């Protein structure tokens, strides 16, 4: 399965669970996306969000017990789209970002592809 017309875009991935991060990175590559950077904690994510060029970000909502909001704020300021990955549903999203796209963990390849495509199109 490949992302229609949007493959080749780059993704910044923030996920604290190493195995989940590896699995999502593999899924992204299978969909035709390039992983621009990966982070497993908030400090690293903040640094990479500032220093890396990417087309979209996938942000775990809870990174080692810390809410992802500071990273989302940086990415929003860059004018870059992002989606949240969460096991808590939309009620687990930071309040100021409840209007943003979210994908419920665990997710399948096709759901990930659809969510990324919609966010890149601005749906």
From TrEMBL:
Pfam families: Response_reg. Residues 10-120 form the Response regulatory domain. InterPro entries: CheY-like_superfamily (IPR011006), Sig_transdc_resp-reg_receiver (IPR001789), WalR-like (IPR039420). One of its GO terms (biological process) is regulation of DNA-templated transcription. PROSITE patterns: RESPONSE_REGULATORY. One of its GO terms (cellular component) is protein-DNA complex. SUPFAM superfamilies: CheY-like. The keyword ATP-binding does not apply. Keywords: DNA-binding, Phosphoprotein, Two-component regulatory system. The modification 4-aspartylphosphate is found at residue 60. It comes from the Bacteria. GO terms for molecular function: phosphorelay response regulator activity; transcription cis-regulatory region binding. This is Response regulator.
């Amino acid at each position: 399965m490949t992302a229609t017309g949007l493959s080749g875009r780059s993704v910044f991935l923030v996920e604290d669970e190493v195995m989940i991060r590896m699995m999502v990175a593999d899924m992204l590559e299978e969909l035709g996306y390039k992983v621009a950077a990966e982070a497993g904690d908030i400090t690293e994510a903040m640094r990479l969000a500032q220093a890396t060029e990417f087309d979209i970000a996938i942000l775990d909502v809870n990174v080692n017990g810390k809410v992802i909001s500071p990273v989302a704020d940086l990415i929003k300021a860059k004018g870059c789209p992002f989606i949240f990955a969460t096991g808590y549903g939309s009620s687990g999203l930071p309040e100021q970002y409840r209007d943003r796209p979210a994908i419920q963990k665990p997710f399948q390849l096709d759901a990930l592809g659809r969510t990324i495509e919609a966010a890149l199109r601005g749906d």
